[in-house]
Amino acid sequence: MVAVVMQVLDTTIANVALPHMRASLGASQDEINWVLTSYIVASAIATPLTGWFSDRIGRRTLLLGAVVGFTVASLLCGIAANLTQMVLYRVIQGVCGAMLVPLAQATMMDINPREKLGQSMAIFGAGIMFGPIIGPTLGGWLTETFNWRAVFLVNLPVGIIAFVMLFALMPNTVIKIRKFDFFGFGMLAVAVASLQMLLDRGQGLDWFESPEIWLYLLLSISGLWVFVIHCFTSSNPFIDMAMFKDRNFVTGLVLIFVTGITLFSGLALLPPMLQNLMGFPVIETGFLMGPRGIGTMLSMVIVGRLVGKYDPRILIIAGTLLMGYSLYMMTQFTVVMSTTPIVVSGLLQGFGMGFVFVPLNSLAFATISSKYRVEATSMFSLVRNVGQGVGISLVTTVLAQMQVINYGELAERLTLDSGPLRDFIAAGGGLQNVAGALSGMMTQQAAMLAFLDDFQLMMIVTFLSLPIVFLLRSPKNKAPPTAEERAHAMGE
């Protein structure tokens, strides 16, 4: 979990440091975004490789190597002299970091008996949720207190601790030699990388007005189509499609995709709203985001004990309803309000996240054979990350478009027949004197309405996911694992 927190934290901690990095590295606004894009694309491509490498060299060796690689890459990012070096080191960091989460999740499932699976997934979920929530705050504090290089160098002591603990405690696993399906991996890499590039660059290129975005779309669809056909027809496919026969696993993939959309889009929306519209400084914004993390931690402590006693599907439904209600509260935000609604809605949303994430992780892998565990957790991480990318791109696009639409609608309704407007103009010394102030107020209100439109969209997506929960099966009647499966899982 130390390794997981280090990797997940790094997905968001660098975001707030981008303006400082841009000035230091002499990059343009478009160029500096490659610091984020390179990491995301490299991580997406490397995630499906985890299962094959784990079988080929052993889970212990791979996890230790990934920790070393991620830590060294973090050091190199912290001392990078130009943008080219930074992007190269971020690619290495993304490749190594992609393997940490699925390996850690598979290991925690293997070393815990089924009755303690809920508690172990609660610990795992706490790490997954902790990083994105604390990342922007920690990154802002490190950047302001020291400089942008500190957001990478902070990984060094954490990486060393993770390596020492894993080296001392990590059990060995069985090594299974299997051929590498270069063609299958190549097609999947093309599909995933193209999709990530489409999501990351779409808004900046005005989406399908750009030939580049059409190219990404065609490559993504073509790569995925060829990959699926190849996996069904090849004698040695890159991913064994048999694991997709498990209904719980497939349903879990759909639900974690939706959760990725709603969870990370909210984390992407709140900081700019709090800072740009409400005028909160970076540190105070971090404190206002804190209750979401507190709610998540509290719920995971509780739900880890409830998973074994109650039907996990009921817990997922309860968490989804809480998240939906918190998003409804966020649709009532205004530019001038106290911090109480922000804190309460964040606390409820975090509480709901824990009730969704922990039982969903338990149910998704409850009925799947242990021999697919690393590949399955890799696919689970990949789908969650794709959902995250889709969610952020979706809310960013809606925010930009609705801001323009809302401004036009406000301007249409602003007439001189309005008594308050006449009073405002008179107090300001005439229409010419207050025109700039009026435009600024309308821009602010249009932006706030656009944020509310996004919150409403996320609320609808959340509630629409509820029927999918009923496709999950309870694992209570599943036969215990065979001796062969237990030996494969534990490496004994």
UniProtKB/TrEMBL annotation:
Keywords: Cell membrane, Membrane, Transmembrane, Transmembrane helix, Transport. Residues 1-477 form the Major facilitator superfamily (MFS) profile domain. It is found in: Cell membrane. It is a multi-pass membrane protein. One of its GO terms (cellular component) is plasma membrane. The chain crosses the membrane at residues 32-54, 61-81, 87-109, 121-142, 148-170, 182-199, 214-232, 253-274, 286-307, 314-335, 347-368, 389-408, 455-472. Pfam families: MFS_1 (PF07690). GO terms for molecular function: transmembrane transporter activity. Belongs to the major facilitator superfamily. EmrB family. This is DSBA oxidoreductase. The lineage of its organism: Bacteria, Pseudomonadati, Pseudomonadota, Alphaproteobacteria, Hyphomicrobiales.
